[in-house]
Amino acid sequence: MPSDRYRGDPLVDTAEILGQVAVIAAAPASLPERAEALMAQLRRVVRFDAGWIALLPPQDKSHVALARSGYDERVSDHLAGASVLEEVELVGLNRSRRPIRGCDMSIPPSELPTWAEYMEPAGFRDGVSAGLFTAEGHYLGVLALHTYDADRVSDSARDLLGLLATWIASAVDPLRSVSTVAGLVQGAAAGIVLAPSGAVLPLPGLPDHPLLAAGSGVLAAAAAQLAEGNPHGSFLAPLPHPTGAQTHARITVLIAPSDVRLFAAAVVLVSPAGDLHGLTHRELQVLGLLLTGASNRGIAAALHIAPRTVAVHVEHARAKLAAPSRTSAAARAVRLGLFVPSVMTLLPGAPPSHAAPQGRPPP
After folding, report:
1. Euclidean distance between CA atoms 47 and 68, whole angstroms
2. Is 261 helix (H, G, I), strand (E, B) or coil?
């Protein structure tokens, strides 16, 4: 039934609401928990009967609700569909930061299927929507509030929502949440976010790096580690050097928190290599191939060297890692992240020998 609650100008303290939103943004909570807390603050601005905060995953066509209340099942199912994004684009919510009501649109609401076929039949008579954007101006998602009353949302309420939308977007930005993970790696100098689709996304607060370019061997090795289900992993990547000397960077792969995995699969960071225990570049390559379960003969074929030379490299690596056996050397290499993954060593088209999962010691 329609509500008889008053929906005039909000008698609120704007600074106090902004402060509460800032507290929510900084809270150690999941994205859905933050979104629910933000909805409670929005109710102080517009006393809505139904509301929705949703994000658009990278390269997707359907929004994912973080918080949603007051809609029946039919409306909720529609909001999760691809046609909503088409209407967002049509009315410009993904381009403009200014919230819009029905009276603000250049297109009559009656010509929009979401309103004419879903909202109005469900009893809604007014509403206001705002696009959510990252600090760099990329469309992130949408918030929408609907009321049963025919009274239009006031100008002041709409304008306050426009101010709050910037802070709300920051609070629910998955990449901003993921960026806090980078603080776990000392000396991280660059990083990216891997989307579930495999797309490479910028990591707020850190620059990118040539090693992390889409299609690189580093990202292929990172994807292989993620496929094993490990929450974190580390390995080494060769760095080009003007003098021809072989140097390395440390690559750390951290799986994203569970509440943001629809938007971000993992963070991949570049930092100084650290102590290499005296291991040479060739020995690091041999350790990486050893982790695939390859024999000395298989490693030799991959590196185009003699099996006898491989045996010498294995013995040297074992001694430097203070490992009593070949298997324990592989295990320590994984634990310390002291190997160059085989995917970065094998020539294009060269099949790995004994393709065991990368990052696990051979049996």
Report:
1. 15
2. coil
For residue 308, how many C-alpha atoms fall within 13 Å in the half-sphere facing its CB? 0
144 confidence band (pLDDT: 50, 70, 90): very high
CATH of 14-172, one of 3.40.630.30, 3.30.450.40, 3.40.50.150, 3.30.1780.10: 3.30.450.40
Q: What is the pTM of this model?
A: 0.78
349: alpha, beta or left? (left if phi > 0; alpha if psi -120 to 50): left
Q: Which CATH class is domain 276-363?
A: mainly alpha
Q: How far apart are the first and last CA of the chain?
A: 67
How is the chain split among helix, strand and coil, in percent rounded to 5? 40, 15, 40
Ramachandran quadrant class, 207 (left: phi over 0; alpha: psi -120 to 50; beta: rest): beta
Confidence at 2, pLDDT banded by 50, 70, 90: very low
SS3 170: helix
Give the whole-angstrom CA distance, residue 178 versus residue 47: 32
Residues in the chain, overall count: 363
223 C-beta neighbours (distance < 10 Å), count: 17
- Secondary structure letter of residue 143 according to DSSP: E
Closest CA to 277 of 287, 268, 267: 287
Tens digit of each residue's pLDDT (9 = 90 or more) over 25-39: 888 888 999 999 999
Spatial distance between the Cα atoms of 180 and 176, rounded to a whole number of angstroms: 7
Residue 132, CA distances (Å) to 26, 44, 225 in order: 18, 19, 33
Q: What's the rounded Cα separation, in Å, for the pair 141 and 103?
A: 22
